[in-house]
Amino acid sequence: MLRMVDVGGMRYRVVDEGLGPAILFVHGFPLDHTMWAAQVAEFSRTNRVIAPDLRGFGGTDGTLYAVSMQQFADDLEELLIALEVERPITFCGLSMGGYIAWQFVLRHPQWVERLILCDTRAAGDSPEAASNRLKMADIVTKEGPEPVVWAMMPKLFSRMTTERRPEIAEQVRQTVMNTNPLAIAAAHRGMAIRPDVTEQLPNFHLPTLVLVGEHDAISPPAEMMGIANALPNARFVQIPDAGHMAPMEDPVAVNRAIRDFLVMTR
């Protein structure tokens, strides 16, 4: 069920479906909850699935000049409280959703029982990458989302997905083109200053699934395997023939990996 929920002066658009232990699905940049459609359909049969549009994205308002990963994390806690979600939850985030996951666990550890990290990173931006983000934020503010589409789309999917399932790439392209440019700019500025949590990984003792597409050019498998090896209680799964958007590219394999992880960590 797609709901509109008022939280602290903001109006959220959020999927809230199913009954049972809650799974929070947090989308990547610059997308919305629709990227999790296959996971919502699968896991709402056995779990309560919460899949929001983050501040400024999709149907949620609340755009700021910059939104830190800590702010996104605090927003999500307020949303969970407003929805009267029972603790603890499983937190699943992709890409920027993974950056938010680190901060959510650090700031609100009482909420999280398990962590699922899809196609994401633990490292912060290099000075060059941060500078490029800030430049892109200014460009998008003036020109709209199209420059982000041109910059990101070639990196999001494996070649196999682009060739065999072009409708997925088109869906994502349309989502980005419909995204508020101020939200894109705000998130760029927030990601540019996000904390590097690499040194803290040994302190994350939660059961964690680290999941990555075989051909992910943004969060390469070797880097994500390094994250899994640094975490005390992690399982690493690589999705064949997928890129950065593995949950959309091969939802059957991703859902199977998530289901196996949930069963193992019951």
Strand order of the largest sheet: 1-2-4-3-5-6-7-8
Give the C-alpha Rg: 17 Å
Strand content: 15-25%
Low-confidence stretches: none
CATH level 4 superfamily: Alpha/Beta hydrolase fold, catalytic domain
Walk me through the structure:
This protein has 266 residues and is of the alpha/beta class. The chain has one domain (2-264): 3-Layer(aba) Sandwich (Rossmann fold), CATH 3.40.50.1820. The chain has eleven helices and eight strands. Strands 1-2-4-3-5-6-7-8 form an eight-stranded mixed β-sheet, with helices on both faces. Helix 1 (37-43) crosses helix 11 (251-264) and helix 4 runs antiparallel to helix 8 (181-192). It is globular and about 50 Å long. It starts with a strand and ends with a helix. The model has no long low-confidence stretch (mean pLDDT 97).
